[in-house]
Amino acid sequence: MPGARGPVPVPAAAPAGEPRDLTQQVLDKLATADAPLNTAEAFPDASQAEIKAALDRLASRDMVAYETLESEHLLLTPEAKKICAEGSHEFKVWDAVKRKGGVPVKELAKEVGAETAKVGQNVAFRNKWIKNEGSVLIPVAETVHDATRELLQSVDKTKAVDNAKTLTELKKRKLVTLAKVIRYKVQKGPKYARKMRVEHTDLTADMLASGDWESANFKPYNFNALGASQNAGALHPLNKVRAEFRHIFFNQGFVEMPTARYIESGFWNFDALFVPQQHPARDMQDTFFISDPAMADPPRDDPEAEAAMEQMEAGSRRLFASPDKPEPKPRDYEQYWADVKKVHQDGGFGSIGYRYPWSAEECLRLVLRTHTTAVSTWVLHRLAEDPRPARYFSIDRVFRNESVDATHLAEFHQVEGVIADFGLTLGGLMRFMEDFFGKLGIENLRFKPAYNPYTEPSMEIFGYHTGLGKWVEIGNSGMFRPEMLEPMGLPRDLRVYGFGLSLERPTMIKYKVSNIRDLLGHKVDLGFIEGNAAVRLDKN
Ligand SMILES: N[C@@H](Cc1ccccc1)C(=O)O
User: Fold this and answer.
1) Do 197 and 164 belong together in one domain?
2) CA 32 – ligand 1 centroid, Å
3) Residues in domain Aminoacyl-transfer RNA synthetases class-II family profile (predicted)?
4) Per residue in 411-436, pLDDT tens?
5) CA end-to-end span of the chain, whole Å?
6) Number of domains the chain contains
7) 454: domain range?
8) Lowest model confidence (mean pLDDT) among 80-84, 220-224, 264-268
């Protein structure tokens, strides 16, 4: 509640812009008043907020009682004020015509101004003040009574009109506006006093020693006071769900993959994944290609990515490395490149391949990565040095040349997981996904057979969105194909699950957001984030 403080000296006039404390002035005026005080009259130049603050402060101590009176006032617009001063448009037209004894229609605007000529002429005709003779306006009335001006002058004085039709007319002509006026009727309350008593907020040792505490006036608690809203930060829902995903992954022994690079070669984004070069996903319609530089180098050692991966693995190495880890042999990228080409063009590793002429140039085109599976692929090819059970995940941005709508963006986040182990089955993947989403509070899952060039079998994962009232796709998954894993040098009995989920979809389900553009992109309203109770309660 404003003004709920101890007594403060009442300044004669507050510095401009600062609210004044009118408390003492209200008490003073009431002391001599024999009728209830009308604040509009008593404090003509105080703002409503100042008055209300003082009244609330006094009323909460029963020193005054007050009533709020609302009323509406008519205010003249600048045009109406001009009419009050100079006469109405129709008056000005008649006046000009009368003075000159006649004005050609064409010259009226020059005499009285275009606006007045237009509006005033019609009314002057209707009032039979002027008439047309040929193309000349001539006066009819000798004297006229400017009713519009008189009406507005009276409105200016009384701030009202008594006729509803007149009011509508004046509003339509934009001559008046309605203003709401709030006044207060104030009376002495049961605990009225000339001055506010000193209110103590603390019981001090001195008061106890002197015995003053017995007569001291303690300020009552104000349980109605609302705290000022704090401009504290809020976690974005995507960040919250991302944190939850990471938590779940780490709890299940996953190692994070280094995903800092948004740009990949076609090789890591497509070819190494056994995506044929004529696949529609590699079309300009679906993928953003980089024009400068346009081409990547063929795959080779990548010390930077290697160092990032080493660091991420460091924590979990003890759990997952084989005790007798062999010395890493240098990777033979020429062989890998040749095997990727072979499996596409001629087949191999038990596959008949796609049998098309494979182009090295297409493979080296640079793209904005369309999925984080590009990174998973790179991480998996490293696993060939020491094939072993391993779990990797990443959560980062991907880019697709999509048209944007309520559920699609050209830029979004993918949550990706890869599980390598001996003896994996599809049923295990389904169970894994159910557990995984269960931990996020999404219980209802459906699986639908799907197709990816790099997995077989493949499954789309659907979750039910209560807000949208329908099933929405939240992920894609499958078991990586030998055509992808074997050219890397991974053994046939090491099976690998992969899944990619959008971060946005589960977030939409969880936070009941129906338009993805409320979550990400240039249309995000910070109010949505700051005001979302679930966003402010952070458990992670
Ligand atoms: N890359 C797939 C997801 C996926 C990852 C791994 C295996 C299967 C599917 C996508 O973008 O939708």
Assistant:
1) no
2) 83
3) 389-509
4) 999 999 999 999 999 999 999 999 99
5) 35
6) 3
7) 237-536
8) 220-224
